[in-house]
Amino acid sequence: MSRVVCFGELLLRMSAPGRELLLQSPQLAVHAGGAEANVGVSLAHLGHAVAAVSTVPANPLGEYAVGELRRHGVDTAAVRRTEGRMGLYFLTTGAVQRASEVVYDRADSAFANSSAADYDWDTLLTGADWLHLSGVSPALNPAMAQATLAAARAACARGVKVSFDGNFRPSLWARWQGDAPGILRELFACADLVFADYRDIGVVLGGEFGQADVHERVDAAAAQAFAAFPRLQWMACTQRTPHSVDTHSLGAMLIGRDGTRAVAPTREMIGIVDRIGGGDAFAAGILHGMMRGFAPDKIVRFGLAAGCLKHSIPGDFNPVSEADIMALTGEERFDVRR
Ligand code: KDG
Description:
By secondary structure, the protein is an alpha/beta fold.
């Protein structure tokens, strides 16, 4: 069992029922989420000691989100309560001829209004093996960019490994015209493991990776990332090819600075129920495989199976066990309707 600290915003997801348009009928389903929290919940179900570091409003919405994390085994003692509002997002699930849509309503949330001075990393990182961060928090505003950098630097300085999921959200960066490449570069520089594909590396380092086969583009991006960031040891990513609104194929790669190159066979996913949080479930699966000392091939197959399993579960969380995921690692076709 490892000790993992996840720093990021807890959000509430408000989704239209089934395939309805948003507010087509006066009902919304509520789920707790947030990219880093999703990773934390998965890791807690996989047997790790996970602590969430965040800020929520001192009101029933904030308490609901914290309660959901606690219910899934995450330590929430370091979640601050302040004045302010809860970050929300509204989801309309896609259907034939219509893509899914996310509307953020999170500006000026209690978390977004917190700052580096609110988090004492000396205490928060005591005993931690890993700190997990994502590109969502620094995209919120300049203070959160600094707070995320402070967390990453504190972990680096204390020998705590940093896992960073690029999670590039152009709409959030655009709101304050933040220097996404500059800030993400500083975060990548602190990371031991990044979840990023060639498009993310293109944002961070500039440059194109041509029209080559997707695996070759990832190889080229990884080579560039390892050259630019001496601390970085691992880069992991999925490759998704959509076929329809509820069918796609998903593959994954794990590349190491030491020349390791593990590719998980592509899975055909049929009857997708909910793909939000699939990337977070993948990230948790990769982290779990690393913490358990699996061989690289097994790590990437496990990560991909974890991500695929999430597609069968409504909500942002993937509350499944190692055995649930292991049961899928041999399957290349994953029909969630079975
Ligand atoms: O990765 C899933 C997240 O997208 C979801 O939980 C909400 O954190 C979120 C975000 O910023 O979109």
